[in-house]
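Project outcomes to date are best conveyed with an example. Our students and postdoctoral researchers have been running inverse folding experiments weekly, and each run begins with a structure described purely in tokens. The record below, which covers 327 residues, was selected by the lab manager from last quarter's runs and is presented without edits.
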């Protein structure tokens, strides 16, 4: 079966790293078709809208989307696109790679984050002069969905350790519901896991990151802890991410448009190629996904390296080195 990939490079280095990742996908023995769409700052200046309806429709219709980054218009592009795919879970693998400096070289974590509710509900109000409140929304449905995804991901990818982050001792109702839901899903699946208070977990992740595998988190905790994880492996530069919905999914590097180097041809395409590997895994092409990941790992270990990793290589030569490992 052929799958349709919507390709939305966006702005800045998105226009350099996304084509490199598409070139990698095209060398594989998988049946994919590509639909190219525009979004971002340039689109806004040319067409008056950062996210044209055609792009929204292309993403809604496609099986998966590969997105780069958007500049000033990021909030008008990526937030609506994530809601087009209705992404209830955000997945961020955080790995240290041989050849790349990392604080914690044994780190191999996957953050599975609830992506729609919690304190990011958007329900805020001014209740009196100088007093504002926020409504923290937690539903059983979303909590169960993120738990199911997390346990399944751990099982499918051979992670033995599953940790559930929460703060149910203080947020008794909301995180109480989250934890109950996760526990019910875990019991149903006969899954083994630990629960940990999110503040204690932050400390443990710094001290013993190698003891963790998949970490299932409410929205805010996942946001903060996954950036902490990024710090353990040398920053945001190499990290891929997935936004998983009911019917489709969107994959993007964690980094932004990098305006300081955009247009110079030296952006590191690794995070986007690793995002393409997650895309393959989502589509069920596990073997090809692993091959792509291993090819990137080999290039990170042996070079060539772009300037962010201390080398002098171009985006295209890193792309070519990855492709050479695949063919
Ligand atoms: P945005 O507002 O789009 O997020 P930013 O200024 O925050 O842009 P980021 O893209 O988040 O920039 O990048 C932060 C720093 O990391 C920049 O110095 C950038 O050059 C560098 N960087 C980010 N991604 C890459 C990459 N793929 N290759 C090389 N350097 C990168
Ligand atoms: Mg940024």
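After processing, the design step wrote out the following sequence:
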């Amino acid at each position: 079966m052929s799958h349709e990939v919507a390709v939305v490079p966006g702005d800045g280095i998105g226009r350099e790293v996304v084509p490199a990742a598409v070139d990698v996908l095209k060398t594989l023995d998988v049946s994919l078709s590509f639909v190219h769409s525009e979004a971002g700052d340039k689109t806004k200046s040319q067409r008056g809208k950062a996210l044209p309806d055609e792009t929204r429709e292309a993403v809604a219709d496609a099986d998966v989307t590969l997105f780069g980054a958007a500049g000033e218009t990021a909030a008008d592009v990526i937030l609506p696109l994530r809601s087009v795919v209705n992404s209830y879970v955000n997945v961020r693998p955080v790995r240290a790679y041989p050849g790349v400096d990392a604080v914690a070289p044994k780190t191999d974590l996957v953050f599975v984050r609830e992506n729609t509710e919690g304190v990011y509900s958007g329900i805020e109000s001014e209740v009196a002069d100088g007093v504002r409140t926020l409504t923290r929304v937690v539903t059983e449905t979303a909590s169960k969905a993120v738990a199911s995804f997390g346990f399944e991901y751990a099982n499918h990818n051979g992670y033995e350790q599953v940790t559930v982050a929460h703060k149910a001792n203080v947020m008794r109702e909301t995180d109480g519901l989250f934890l109950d839901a996760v526990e019910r899903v875990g019991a149903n699946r006969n899954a083994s896991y630990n629960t940990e208070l999110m503040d204690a977990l932050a400390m443990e992740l710094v001290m013993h990151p190698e003891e963790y595998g998949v970490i299932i988190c409410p929205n805010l905790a996942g946001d903060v802890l996954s950036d902490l994880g990024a710090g353990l492996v040398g920053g945001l530069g190499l990290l891929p991410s997935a936004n998983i919905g009911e019917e489709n999914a969107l994959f993007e590097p964690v980094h932004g448009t990098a305006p300081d180097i955009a247009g110079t041809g030296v952006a590191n395409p690794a995070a986007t190629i690793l995002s393409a590997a997650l895309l393959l895994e989502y589509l069920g092409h596990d073997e090809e996904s692993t091959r792509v990941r291993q090819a990137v790992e080999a290039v990170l270990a042996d070079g060539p390296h772009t300037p962010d990793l201390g080398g002098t290589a171009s985006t295209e030569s890193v792309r070519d080195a990855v492709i050479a490992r695949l063919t």
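The mean pLDDT is 95. The longest strand covers residues 3-10. The training component of this project remains on track.
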